[in-house]
Amino acid sequence: MFRHFLLLLIAGCVIVAPARADGYPERPIRMLIPFAVGGSTDVAGRIVAAGLTESLGRQIIVDNRTGAAGIIATEISARANPDGYTLYFGSASTLAVNPAVYKRLPYDVLKDFELISLVAKGVHVLVINSSINATSVRDLIALAKKQPGKMTFASSGTGGVVHLAGEQFRLLAGIELNHVPFKGGGPAAVALLGGEVDMMVNDLAPVLVHMKSGRLRALAVAGAQRSALLPELQTFAEAGLPGVESASWCGLVAPLKTPQPVIARLSADLAKIVASPEYRDRLANVGMEPMSSTSQQFAAYMRSEMARWSKVAKAANVQLDQ
């Protein structure tokens, strides 16, 4: 009788589990964001959270866990219970660049997460102080070659995607530049406006208003195609420097072994959110554009980004935990 009861109990669990997944979500969901409130990643994450709250009928609670270049939030997310109630809003820096600049991480981004979908991309733009005597990428490269090691480029912090974007430009242009890191894209933009540094390859959000005012001069966008937000600005390839491509992208992931019905539900809802005009318009306010993908496309994209930034980090000798 005991064996018979045990078999019935096991069978009942097997039957109930999919039903519970089908009923997802039954309570609020936590979404970890690895950066401080107010930045582009945070704003994009909150837009996604609002959309999912509406489509799922349950509150998405945003949890900003900053520190250690996003490693803290990423590890918490990787170790969370894989029940669909903890999600992670990852970025280019945390999912692709950190594995390139840290030899030892307490997780493996390709093995410890279920990739749900890419959701947004903020393509980078090369901007210079308007006092710099250059009106094109070729002019800037020629100017830098005349004074090797004297010109500077800013970034939002050592080892982040903006830093490596600047290093990628430097390496492919064959010029010597000095890197000056700041604590965020905002302070870097302020320093560029003040003439403390000469240039940077950065997100649009901190620099767009200054580009429009003429205080900063944009020379090229670091995308494979021109940006819908700046259709008049040529790409690096069009400017004669192919291969310079970079962006601050974002994607939603969940801990490994999160039930596939949950992943499928989130993926379907995200596809609808990303396709909406309202989402596109809200992202444009922070200089970002919508992205959408399957989990397989997300994985392929992330691997290509990891390969890109590993190559740049090695060539530029950027290693943060030697």
What does this structure look like?
The protein has two domains: 10-122 and 248-316, 3-Layer(aba) Sandwich (D-Maltodextrin-Binding Protein, domain 2), CATH 3.40.190; 125-221, 3-Layer(aba) Sandwich (D-Maltodextrin-Binding Protein, domain 2), CATH 3.40.190. The protein is built from eleven helices and eleven strands. It has helices at 2-22, 40-56, 71-79, 92-101, 137-146, 161-173, 185-193, 208-213, 260-274, 277-284, 295-316, and strands at residues 29-33, 60-64, 86-91, 113-123, 125-129, 152-155, 178-181, 199-202, 216-221, 247-255, 289-290. A six-stranded mixed sheet has the order 2-1-3-10-4-11, sandwiched between helices. The protein has a three-stranded antiparallel sheet with strand order 8-5-9. It has a two-stranded parallel sheet with strand order 6-7. 43% of the residues are buried.
Features:
322 residues; alpha/beta; D-Maltodextrin-Binding Protein, domain 2; 2 domains; three-stranded antiparallel β-sheet; 11 helices; globular
Summarize this structure briefly:
The chain has about 325 residues and is of the alpha/beta class. The protein is built from eleven helices and eleven strands.
